[in-house]
Design goal:
Number of strands: 17
CATH class: Alpha Beta
Largest sheet: 5 strands, mixed
CATH superfamily: Thiolase/Chalcone synthase
Distance between the termini: 34 Å
Strand order of the largest sheet: 1-7-6-4-5
Number of helices: 15
Bound molecules: coenzyme A
Oligomer: single chain
């Protein structure tokens, strides 16, 4: 057994908006969102959820899936770019809500959508070090992607959290860290200045930055792989997943990877290669992005959750290429190996269950909810979820003397 991820869980807010409804309201052809961007629905955050509750809900499920006690956790990292305070970390709120002990290192990490990967790698290094004293790490990615009504980014919104238990001995997911390829560059492709509630995004430039980072990392990963194993990337990796600000990005990214690995091939030959590999190697990972939208730090790991729902135990023994990108920018291409622990994890999969229990909202409800005030008079918690809901256990109740207040349901 080696260090790695011993359980993963996802939390998705219980409301969604249909992209067809959004397209109709904005007088945009439905195919632009359906085909041009690849979206079907997007998660909408109700007034009782925020980055903290989503993180706590995902974390509690990951702890249960791993079958560990909370006092076994010695490191708690939350990665987010939509924190609730400029100083107090989301991780501290989560520590309090979950009742995680005081002898724990607790902090928040930010590097746009790349931050989750940084947190996972930090946690793996920690469990491999002498400092972990037999404890495990809890890593959480939690974000609300909100661009504002009537903006170009509006169809690419979403929200959700993914939590991971990282331990020094697991049979579930191991990374092959000697192979990891890194890239970073100081760019302004997506940013949110202090005081801004929504980001500023130079969307087309951001895609260019993403693809430049992917080029660089693909070459590096291929070189590392040949050096360490004698095998090429396309032979070694069974499934590819990419950070997805929108589902169609998977097409752009995979074509770019194929072109980088085959520089002498013409565009139509690359497109044919893409078509040949799409159904088997990529499609099963796209469901989350199509149904939920962008969840920033957790986006690429939501692809993993989608793949797990689709392929379950057949993933045992497979290698997965994970390309993580964050604006600003930073990127890492890594390879994860799925082990026998997938059998146990398969018993706890609940992503599809959460999608099925969501309530569809109207454009009017969405507009009220995502207007600047961010509150809703019409959507009430008791009308959407039961008081002992098994997924939405923690909820936000308001602000008192500048302090955010939370409560827990009966579950
Ligand atoms: N039918 C089918 N496809 C259509 C269409 C129609 N009627 N109308 C447009 N399209 C396609 C376009 O051809 C384009 O596809 P392509 O990129 O393969 O050429 C796609 O839909 C998008 O349309 P386009 O007009 O080029 O883009 P846009 O100005 O609407 O912006 C984003 C799209 C993604 C750039 C914008 O939504 C954005 O900035 N989102 C935020 C991205 C983000 O979060 N980045 C974070 C860093 S990762």
């Amino acid at each position: 057994m080696k260090a790695g991820i011993s359980s993963i869980s996802i939390y998705i807010p219980p409301l969604y908006l249909s992209h067809d409804d959004l397209a109709d309201a904005r007088a945009i052809p439905r195919d632009k969102f359906r085909i041009g961007l690849g979206h079907v629905n997007m998660a909408i955050v109700p007034p009782w959820d925020d980055t903290v509750t989503m993180a706590a809900n995902a974390a509690e499920m990951a702890i249960e899936t791993a079958g560990i006690d909370k006092d076994e956790i010695g490191l708690l990292i939350v990665s987010t770019e939509t924190g609730v305070d400029q100083s107090k970390p989301v991780a501290s709120f989560v520590q309090g809500l979950l009742g995680i002990g005081h002898r724990t290192r607790v902090y928040e990490i930010k590097h746009a959508c790349y931050g989750g990967t940084v947190a996972i790698m930090n946690a793996i290094n920690w469990v491999k070090s002498q400092h972990h004293r037999g404890k495990k790490a809890l890593v959480i990615t939690s974000d609300i992607a909100k661009y504002g009504l009537n903006t170009l980014g509006e169809p690419t919104q979403g929200a959700g959290a993914v939590a991971f238990i990282i331990s020094d001995e697991t049979e579930f997911i191991h990374f092959l860290p000697d192979l990891n390829a890194f890239y970073s560059k100081d760019v302004y492709d997506f940013w949110r200045p202090n005081g801004y509630l929504t980001p500023i995004v130079d969307g087309k430039y951001s895609i260019d930055c993403y693809l430049e980072a992917l080029d660089f990392c693909t070459k590096d990963l291929q070189d590392n792989l040949i050096r360490e194993t004698g095998k090429e990337l396309l032979d070694f990796v069974d499934y590819f997943m990419y950070h997805l600000p929108f589902p169609r990005m998977a097409y752009k990214a995979h074509c770019r990877l194929l072109a980088t690995l085959n520089p002498t091939l013409a565009e139509d030959a690359i497109n044919r290669m893409y078509e040949e590999s799409f159904t088997e190697k990529m499609k099963p990972a796209l469901m989350g992005s199509e149904e939920v939208g962008n969840i920033y730090t957790g986006s690429v790991y939501m692809c993993l959750m989608s793949l797990m729902e689709e392929k379950s135990e057949s993933l045992i023994g497979k290698n997965i290429g994970i390309f993580s990108y964050g604006s600003g920018c930073g990127a890492e291409f890594l390879i994860a190996h799925i082990g026998r622990g997938m059998k146990q994890q398969a018993k706890h999969l609940n992503f599809n269950k959460q999608l099925k229990r969501r309530k569809k909202i109207t454009m009017e409800e969405y507009t009220e909810l995502y207007s600047e005030q961010g509150a809703s008079k019409t959507i009430k918690r008791e009308d959407v979820i039961s008081t002992d809901d098994e997924f939405s256990r923690y909820f936000f109740t308001g602000v008192n003397e500048h302090k955010r207040q939370y409560a827990k349901n009966r579950n």
